[in-house]
Write a structure and sequence with these properties.
Layout (H helix, E strand, L loop, with lengths): L1 H11 L11 E12 L3 E12 L4 E6 L21 E6 L2 E6 L4 E7 L16 E8 L2 E7 L6 E6 L9 E6 L3 E5 L26 H7 L9
Antiparallel strand pairs: 1-2, 1-11, 2-3, 3-4, 4-5, 5-6, 7-8, 8-9, 9-10, 10-11
């Protein structure tokens, strides 16, 4: 009996398989950013992902405090929606209310399509109750610690992302996941093209390969 208990305890303590996103899904999120001098700001948004067509989209109700959409750019002092749209390896910023779109960077700059298993080499930390939910906690090292919280379970694609925290300036808290995308949500707006570059400092630095992409 003691031997059986030890075996069960050993199995339960094993490191879970690495996180893996399903091929197609979307989730709403609440995001809080915190920058020195600028302060703490929050917005809401939606994340849409489709690996089958190699495209995804991040909508923010207010992109002013996103490092690519707003900071150090022409809309730095303007509250306006902004969407990151990754299509064919290229990342565009789409300002729907302004009917503006520009090219930020591409896969060669490190900001193209995310693989479903982009967290494969993340380090497992432990289980943790996060916002009232039992989660697996992982750390995906980049320019800083990136803590990823997901629901627990033996099948990676069945787990749901609960939170992604980029220490110490960006926290995204995700809602329920749906496997059905809104029709046409990942279509690239006709005004988006590779000839109109985004003028934010972050996008300019990425295109000149002076920095590494940070974020989703």
């Amino acid at each position: 009996m003691i031997g059986l208990f030890l075996v069960l305890a050993s199995v339960s303590a094993q490191t879970p398989l690495s996180p893996m996103w399903p091929n197609t899904f979307w989730q709403p999120f609440n995001e809080t950013t915190k920058y020195s001098l600028i302060g703490t700001h929050s917005t809401t948004g939606n994340f849409y992902y489709d690996w089958t067509i190699k495209a995804y989209r991040v909508d923010r109700a207010n992109g002013r405090y996103d490092r690519y959409c707003g900071l150090a750019g022409p809309y730095e002092f303007e509250n306006t929606p902004c969407s990151h749209i990754v299509n064919n390896g290229n990342r565009f910023l789409y300002y729907s209310s302004l009917n503006k779109c520009c090219f930020c960077c591409n896969a060669a700059n490190g900001c193209g399509m995310l693989f479903p298993g982009w967290m494969t080499n993340a380090t497992y930390i432990d289980t943790e109750i996060h916002n009232g939910v039992m989660t697996y906690k992982w750390d995906k090292k980049g320019l800083q610690d990136n803590f990823i919280y997901e629901t627990v379970g033996s099948v990676p694609v069945d787990r749901v992302t609960v939170s992604i925290y980029q220490v110490s300036d960006d926290d995204m808290e995700f809602g329920s996941r749906s496997s059905t995308l809104p029709a046409g949500i990942l279509n690239l707006p006709s005004i988006c093209n590779l000839n109109t570059n985004c003028e934010t400092a972050a996008c300019s630095a990425l295109r000149s390969q002076k920095v590494t992409f940070k974020g989703l």
